[in-house]
Amino acid sequence: MTAEQQALLDRLTAALASEPRVQAAWLSGSLGRGEGDAWSDVDLTVLVAQDDLAQVIAAFRAPRPDMPPVVFGQLVHGRIVSAVTPNWDRYDLAFVTPAELAWLDGAALTPLLGETAPPPARPPPDDRDAARRVEALAAEFLRVLGLAPVAFGRGEWIVALQGLDLLRSMLVDLMLEENGVPPGARGAKRLNPFLTTEQQRLLEALAAPRAERRALLEAQRELATLFLPRARALTEALGAAWPAEFEEATRRRLRAALDLSI
Question: Going by C-beta distance under 8 Å and a sequence separation of 6 or more, which residues neighbour residue 173?
């Protein structure tokens, strides 16, 4: 933890300690798990009785002298006070009730104040939805890929770029699925720890095309060449159904409309 992060954490902890309706607080997020770095925001999980919840959230959303000054703030999911300071330090205060605390993973909570013990560490849940997710991912990739002739036919090069962004994002999701990383286990602003060196190399080498026909066509081919074989192999490994007819229809569509073979 940097000196700046520690100073922010100390100020937040002191402010929470001065509020009698706060029962306990823990450092959470990546810093709470011991996986943070100099770029991590400071996340705190704060325990409050159900009857006090709304009032305490309102108290920490309002400006107060014991809290850092804020240039941007928002309430996320009705429970998380998220803020940015003038120095662009970031913090989240996630308020939970005792009943909600019991569902959290105690391994990701580092005690800061209060006598309440964190819940026990939770084993990783069985991921029973991987096959369904990969099936849906393959179908959506083919659908977006098959819509390329619409943008190309209209000369909508900006729209074509947006489509490529979607395809690239789905390729990243596919690689994470290859590594057994379900959506809930991924980092919000971090990918490298969840990707292999080979996957990183392939993604970083992808071209950033200009908004013109030839470059966009080549980018479509490059993404499809990377995605489809990997998706088919993973689908088979998971015992899921590969959309063979949809794939063949999409290939025919691209050959006929764009002279694009993938």
Answer: 137
